[in-house]
Amino acid sequence: MAATIAEKIFSMKCGRTVRAGDVVMAPVDAAMIHDITGPLAVRVFGEMGGKRVYDPDRIIMLFDHQVPADSIPAAENHVFMRRFAEEQGIRNYDLLEGVCHQVVMEKGRAAPGEIIVGTDSHTCTYGAAGAFATGIGSTDMGFVLKFGALYFRVPESILLEIDGAFGRRVGPKDLILSLVGDIGADGATYTALEFTGGAMHDMDMAGRMTCANMAIEMGAKAGIVRPDETTRDYVAARRGVEPLDLAGDADADYRERRHYDVTDLSPQVAVPHNVDNVVDVADVAGTKVDQVFIGSCTNGRYEDLAEAAGVLGTADRFADGVRVIVIPASRTEYLKALRAGLVERFVEAGALVEAPCCGPCMGGAFGLLAPGEVSLSTSNRNFRGRQGSTQASVYLASPATAAASALYGEITDPREV
Amino acid sequence: MRVWKFGDDIDTDAIIPGRFLTIYDPAELAKHAFEGTRNEFARDVREGDVVVGGTNFGCGSSREHAPLALLGAGVRVVVAKSFARIFYRNAVNTGLLPLVCPETDAIRDGDTVSVDLAGGFIEANGQRLPVEPVPGFLKEIVEAGGLVAYAKNLDKVEICNIE
């Protein structure tokens, strides 16, 4: 029977055919908790009478939102979580490895066909590895820690066929912003997005993670990139086993099939205060910026930093009066950037390069905006108050557009640099 | 029950900003609910008030602090044309009742409303506006008063049962 990737994953896990709309208590292959939503999940686990977690090897713990601890309550959360990890024998990456979604991917904790949950809405990032991955709340996570399973409504799927080839300095972030703009902030609510097409399969894993990461910005439950050789190489190198082959069937019952071509796509910008408020960079070029943030689970990988450094080129300095904050998404990505000389270039040009963490996108730790200030950010949300004052403005764009804007102190088309 | 009316795409950063996420106590969270976007909410909200939104209520972050902040403020019911998925589930799990009502345009800020769950409607301005019930598998959780109460007496779950 023809099926979507989401239907196939739930059917495999349950050993019988399940269809979109079915509600199943499905087993969870991996569960990720971090420093902000993790403590509440651990407390709920206790309130539910939990004593031992269902399988410590399937639980991933790390701290990334408030690291190193920015307040005494944050430090207390870290201590609380460390203690739980020790008691339960859970592998805790603590604050050493970086942003949760990057770490789960690079440590090989996500693979095609798996069901993964995390107490973070951007857990959908692991769809880049072909997993069915979705964000859940802390109470659902308490349940998962205890039982190793959760009620899921198997979602309908939307097939996104992405073809063509990106122009110079246009890339995955521009694609996903254009999709959010087109589909809308709730246009994919409850569905699984299934990404395929030539442009998707030409993309490296970094670009696929950027796209899968923002599935939630359309309300989607998951954003799965159809696995291919690139996925297999990435996962096999980390797992040491050949991952599962998985594709949606041509005649599967998709709620909708949408086709896009990236060939003529311009750099895209999401303007305040909604992620689906997306325009061509030309429409907002010249807008003065006070802060530029290059990093996050969306765009903090080596490839993103290299793209930004490419735009910086041989320029001496970023524009006067612009605070440029660069945060690699993980220790691994930081080392790659360091060894390639990118960190040196950013620092020479006047950027602050911070240790891996969520940074300003957390809206509480550091890098906050004052009323009236404007930020251009490579992260995934521009909600009012997301990066500090509710009277500040956040624009979202690609690393290339961010670097170009940092060079001129105003939103700038990277193709014109 | 006084109505606090909001628009479309009310995100969880608006309900409770990121800088308060080290707080887990609902009463403390409630002091910062809608801080910066609607400051009078935390000051004037009363036990039993109802939050009413448009489409995509609760979009964004998975932070359960959002339903907890509303519960701490005494809100027991949120009514919207549609909800973001994670917020909807978090609300059910924590004992905040999310009701889908396609006609929230007919409800104004400051209105007094009553909710008739058995009848499946909200009464506002003399009109009965139909609300959609919480779907089957979540209904038991609502009836238990949240997922903790539901799961407390469970020793194991049956994997892959289909409802």
Automatic annotation (TrEMBL), chain A:
It is an enzyme of class 4 (lyase). Binds 1 [4Fe-4S] cluster per subunit. Keywords: 4Fe-4S, Amino-acid biosynthesis, Branched-chain amino acid biosynthesis, Iron, Iron-sulfur, Leucine biosynthesis, Lyase, Metal-binding. Pathway: Amino-acid biosynthesis; L-leucine biosynthesis; L-leucine from 3-methyl-2-oxobutanoate: step 2/4. Its cofactor is [4Fe-4S] cluster. [4Fe-4S] cluster binds at C297, C358, C361. Pfam families: Aconitase. One of its GO terms (molecular function) is 4 iron, 4 sulfur cluster binding. Its EC number is 4.2.1.33. CDD domains: IPMI. SUPFAM superfamilies: Aconitase iron-sulfur domain. GO terms for biological process: L-leucine biosynthetic process. Residues 20-409 form the Aconitase/3-isopropylmalate dehydratase large subunit alpha/beta/alpha domain. It catalyses: (2R,3S)-3-isopropylmalate = (2S)-2-isopropylmalate. The keyword Glycoprotein does not apply. Heterodimer of LeuC and LeuD. Belongs to the aconitase/IPM isomerase family. LeuC type 2 subfamily. Catalyzes the isomerization between 2-isopropylmalate and 3-isopropylmalate, via the formation of 2-isopropylmaleate. This is 3-isopropylmalate dehydratase large subunit. The gene is leuC.
UniProtKB/TrEMBL annotation, chain B:
Belongs to the LeuD family. LeuD type 2 subfamily. It comes from the Archaea. Transmembrane segments: none annotated. Pathway: Amino-acid biosynthesis; L-leucine biosynthesis; L-leucine from 3-methyl-2-oxobutanoate: step 2/4. It catalyses: (2R,3S)-3-isopropylmalate = (2S)-2-isopropylmalate. It is an enzyme of class 4 (lyase). The keyword Signal does not apply. Keywords: Amino-acid biosynthesis, Branched-chain amino acid biosynthesis, Leucine biosynthesis, Lyase. InterPro entries: Aconitase/3IPM_dehydase_swvl, AconitaseA/IPMdHydase_ssu_swvl, IPMI_Swivel, LeuD, LeuD_type2/HacB/DmdB. Residues 50-103 form the Aconitase A/isopropylmalate dehydratase small subunit swivel domain. Coiled coil: none annotated. This is 3-isopropylmalate dehydratase small subunit. PANTHER family: 3-ISOPROPYLMALATE DEHYDRATASE SMALL SUBUNIT, 3-ISOPROPYLMALATE DEHYDRATASE SMALL SUBUNIT 2-RELATED-RELATED. GO terms for molecular function: 3-isopropylmalate dehydratase activity. GO terms for biological process: L-leucine biosynthetic process. It comes from Methanoculleus palmolei. Its EC number is 4.2.1.33.
